[in-house]
Design a protein that fits this description.
heterodimer; A: 242 residues; alpha/beta; Rossmann fold; six-stranded mixed beta sheet; 37% helix; B: 309 residues; mainly alpha; two-stranded antiparallel sheet; 11 helices; 4 strands
């Protein structure tokens, strides 16, 4: 049996006195799209930060490729193939689109692989190539999201961690972004995605976890969760008639 | 000397002073850009560096303004003095960061800023107690060469200041915009957490910012000594506060702002001194500081709404 690509085992995390993650377990297998659903302050962003090593678990352990990430620096995590697409895009606004892409490849050497990855990003997002010399802060929201995804791909990640890829995008764009996420996954990148847009997320994810005030309250294959009364009520915008 | 010539002369003097203020202002801005910390120790890193420059020149038997060098000997001694002073100042800056600021990383509030004030006093008193309170006659191997245009005079030492300042600022510009580490530095200044998640070792970037900023203060310190032919334990405040005003005027955190702000403060000092009265210079300069903080706190090139992580 092969080990999961990423695994959280009973992870607790605190922000000062705030208990943000409570004995959380996740398992992400290589090749999957896994989605993390939850409202505001449910611990979604903290999950992302714990994967990247920005937040350290106070208890429990995170494993990547079967090895603990305890004491592993963020730089080393990126080098081993974990790349983030940050919440609200968080580009470097006063750097050009090209420089932002370069920052995504920060831990890697320039050369043939860099050029290949750049070509791959341009193939996925022709608009990014058009905007290459523009300052990232001057792009539209949709274009910024493309650059943010492209920037993460420049790290040639095995695991792409996406924080709210649909946030602030128009419905047409959301669909486009989700198509691209599926395409990236098809090309061999495992995807762990935090989302509020449960409808779209469950449509493309293999499995999902539901996070509520720091604890996993539900998990399972997307198809099953889509049928779940509680999910339909809380996340899919369907009103239950009393 | 016509009034026009007087103003032109003061403009030339102002540009020389301004180049020095700009180099010193860059140190405030580089550190602030990344840590959002006003490094008050920067004042006396400048002052200590002026003494290091003095000692470096004395190693070659240069003392006062009596031993004049020319040609290759002059170039060699000056190059040595600049390299030693800048490197030593850079190391002092890095030591300050490692010993007194890194342990406070992540502590909220003003602890780090207060610490830099403490370090500033340590440097101040270390020089006061070892060297003394007198002012030192600065060794200056530059021959007195002047070019006269009508009644307007340009001196060799001023040309030297401009050349050094331009070379250093162009080098900084190239580093920040065209190297991997320079880009990482800009990225860290714009969004530190995002830069970290790209794999940037932010601690290393902070060390580089302190080294570069302090090294530039070292260059400014040597320029100061060669321009005024003296130094003393107090120059960190007199010169440093004006450079700080320059950084605020330009928009602290902005590299272009520090350069432009430095030149403006230099010009305001000499032209203001000429048009109003020299003894009012400090009143004028610090009124500008207050005015900028009240009216345009972000300065000429600063961001009113910095990207926060």
């Amino acid at each position: 049996m092969t080990e999961p690509l990423l695994e959280f085992k009973a992870v607790d995390a605190h922000y000062g006195d705030f208990h943000v993650l409570k004995a959380v377990d996740y398992t992400i297998e290589t090749g999957e799209i896994v989605c993390l659903l939850g409202g505001n302050a449910s611990g979604k962003s903290t999950t992302m930060k714990a994967i990247m090593g920005i937040v350290r678990p106070t208890r429990g352990e995170v494993f990547y490729e079967g090895q603990t990430l305890r004491g592993v620096s963020t730089t080393e995590r990126v080098r081993r193939g974990i790349a983030p697409v940050l919440e609200a895009r968080r580009l470097f606004p006063r750097m050009t689109v090209y420089e932002n892409l370069e920052m995504g490849a920060y831990t890697r050497r320039r050369g043939r692989e860099f050029d290949e990855d750049l070509a791959r990003v341009f193939a996925l997002f022709p608009r990014v190539e058009e905007r290459l010399r523009q300052l990232a802060g001057t792009l539209s929201g949709g274009e910024q999201q493309m650059v943010a995804i492209g920037r993460a791909l420049m790290a040639r990640p095995k695991l792409l961690c996406m924080d709210e890829p649909s946030m602030g995008l128009s419905p047409a764009y959301v669909e486009q972004v989700f198509d691209i996420i599926r395409e990236i996954n098809r090309q061999g990148t495992t995807i762990f995605m935090v989302e509020q847009n449960a409808n779209m997320a469950l449509a493309i994810a293999d499995r999902a976890y539901v996070l509520q005030t720091g604890a996993v309250v539900l998990s399972g294959p997307s198809a099953e969760l889509r049928q779940n009364e509680q999910i339909r009520h809380a996340y899919l915008g369907e009103m239950t008639v009393a | 000397m016509t009034e026009y010539e007087v103003l032109l002369q003061q403009t030339i003097n102002g540009l020389s002073l301004g180049a020095m203020y700009a180099l010193l202002a860059l140190g405030f801005t580089l550190v602030y850009g990344i840590l959002e910390l006003i490094n008050f120790a920067h004042f006396n890193v400048f002052m200590v560096a002026s003494f290091i420059g003095m000692w470096a020149l004395q190693l070659f038997g240069v003392s006062g303004q009596t031993r004049i060098l020319t040609g290759a000997a002059l170039a060699g001694v000056l190059a040595f003095a600049f390299v030693v002073t800048m490197a030593a100042a850079g190391v002092i800056g890095v030591a300050i960061e490692r010993l007194s600021l890194r342990p406070l990383r992540g502590v909220r509030g003003t602890a780090a800023m207060i610490t830099t004030i403490g370090v500033n006093y340590i440097l101040f008193n270390a020089i006061l107690l070892t060297v003394g309170a007198g002012s030192e006659n600065y060794p200056n191997p530059l021959p007195v060469v002047r070019w006269q245009f009508g009644h307007v005079i340009v001196e060799l030492k001023e040309v030297l200041i401009w050349v050094v300042a331009v070379v250093l600022m162009v080098a900084l510009h190239l580093f920040v915009n065209h190297t991997r580490l320079g880009k990482a530095m800009r990225a860290t200044a714009q969004d530190g957490e995002a830069a970290r998640m790209m794999g940037v070792d932010v601690d290393r970037i902070i060390v580089i910012a302190f080294f570069l900023g302090s090294a530039l203060a070292g260059a400014a310190a040597l320029i100061f000594g060669l321009y005024y032919n003296y130094t003393s334990f107090i120059v960190g405040y007199t010169v440093g506060l004006r450079a700080f005003t320059a950084a605020v005027l330009g928009g602290i955190g902005s590299i272009t702002g520090a350069m432009v702000g430095g030149l403006l403060i230099g010009l305001i000092e000499t032209l203001g001194g000429q048009l109003i009265a020299v003894r009012w210079t400090d009143v004028i300069i610090f009124s500008i500081l207050v005015l900028v903080l009240v009216v345009v706190p972000s300065g000429l090139f600063g961001r009113s709404n910095p990207q926060k992580s």
